UniProtKB/TrEMBL annotation:
Signal peptide: none annotated. Coiled coil: none annotated. It comes from Tenebrio molitor (Yellow mealworm beetle). It comes from the Eukaryota. It holds the Pfam family EcKL. This is CHK kinase-like domain-containing protein. Gene3D superfamilies: 3.90.1200.10. Residues 126-321 form the CHK kinase-like domain.
Length: 391
């Protein structure tokens, strides 16, 4: 849905109260492409203050909830936006304060600048700095990430997860209160819609594509793994012995933006993590495995043990800086045991499909046209997962 200027001005006047902008102009630069956001739309805006002697300019991104009544009734859109607002308003500021208390010089801060939110009965809007104007860009989602990109994200996840472990150890009551207000939005999607069927279809498609490429036994093991989906999404992470942290939750390629070196367009120097709508309290393995298996190359998956150790080294180092001990809170052997235990262009517009009588789960079950690329990306993941006993 294309948002109009009056609507955007109304939202921004209420969000940017601390910026002292009595009068300003709004220039809508563009909208997200069809299908880019399943439960929300993105609007790119340039705001200019009307103060003649010292005009201010803001390049902003507005993340706006879909307003389709049918979609809002059949999916937890409001809950997803409420969850993300809670992360930006409460969780991340508390994490920042905790790190500052310990004098951390290189804290976890890999998120876009957040200005605030507007909400009413049928609308949720979050306002961020436009990272593109700060030199960040998305990686081409058709290509696996380079090893340097992988390492950077893994190290940031180590720092991010370390804050939860340290707070649980040093401020258990405060941390309990902090994570208890997070909702399991993904579980709500699974309950309300035929998402499990979508995942099952994906397993079948991969098996059909890889017939003749991988041994039949490997494909049978992979296909049977779909029978464990409900256990993985609901029961496994609820076991009392599972180590838990506050998660990012949505770890695919398009939810990371990278700033690259001025003299090298593929050398990352900073990453920002986007989209915290399905953030929840669960095993750190969920963030790590989702990210790695969604973004890794065939070459780097062969070196996955080293990548896992890099994650744990980052987590341990950040814990130490916060006065905590990883050997007590999350030792390497426990992490590796947990890892063993747990472990596109062709999109459909979410709102349009549901308004036209479609099922929410079916929206994600579209056919992949570029079968060759899909096959090449899937082959090394299936082979690694089965050969290393992760299923």
């Amino acid at each position: 849905m294309i948002r109009n200027e009056d609507e955007i001005r109304f939202w921004l006047k209420r969000v940017l109260t601390e910026e002292n902008l009595d009068d300003f102009s709004v220039n809508i630069l563009g909208n997200s492409e069809k299908g880019d956001g399943y439960v929300g739309d993105i609007v790119f805006v340039r705001l200019t203050s009307a103060i003649a002697h010292s005009p201010k300019e803001y390049n902003l991104v507005l993340k706006c909830s879909k307003q389709s009544e049918t979609l809002r009734k059949t999916t937890p859109i409001k809950e997803a936006f409420t969850n993300e607002i809670y992360v930006y308003n409460t969780v991340l500021p508390v994490f920042t304060q905790f790190q500052r208390k310990h004098g951390i010089e290189n804290p976890f801060d890999s998120v876009p600048k957040y200005y605030g939110r507007f909400t009413d009965e049928n609308t949720e809007v979050l306002v961020f700095e436009n990272l593109k104007s700060a030199g960040y860009s998305l990686w081409n989602k058709k290509n696996p990430l380079t090893r340097k990109h992988i390492n950077m994200v893994v190290e940031e996840y180590g720092k991010f997860h370390a804050i939860s472990f340290a707070m649980q150890d040093q401020q258990p009551e405060k941390f309990q209160e902090l994570h208890s207000d997070l909702q399991d939005v993904f579980k709500q999607f699974m309950t309300l819609s035929a998402f499990e069927n979508m995942f099952s279809k994906g397993f079948d498609e991969v098996c059909d594509l890889l017939k003749g490429d991988l041994e039949d036994e490997t494909l049978i093991i992979w296909k049977n793994f779909r029978n464990q989906l409900n256990y993985i999404f609901s029961e496994m992470c609820q076991q009392p012995d599972v180590k838990k942290v506050i998660l990012h939750g949505d770890c695919w390629n398009n939810n990371f933006m990278y700033k690259h070196a001025a003299d090298n367009e593929i050398l990352p120097v900073k990453v920002a993590m986007l989209d915290w709508q399905i953030s929840k309290y669960s095993s750190p393995i969920l963030d790590l495995s989702y990210f790695l298996f969604a973004c890794i190359s065939k070459e780097d998956i062969e070196d996955l043990d080293e990548i896992l150790r890099l994650y744990h080294k980052s987590l341990s180092s950040h814990l130490q800086r916060m006065g905590a001990d990883s050997k007590k809170l999350y030792p390497l052997d426990t992490f590796l045991k947990d890892w063993k235990k747990f472990d596109s262009d062709e999109v459909i517009d979410f709102a349009d499909a549901v308004e036209n009588g479609g099922d929410v789960g079916a929206v994600f079950s579209y056919d992949v046209k570029d079968k060759t690329s899909y096959k090449n990306r899937a082959r090394h993941v299936v082979k690694y997962v089965v050969e290393n006993g992760l299923i």
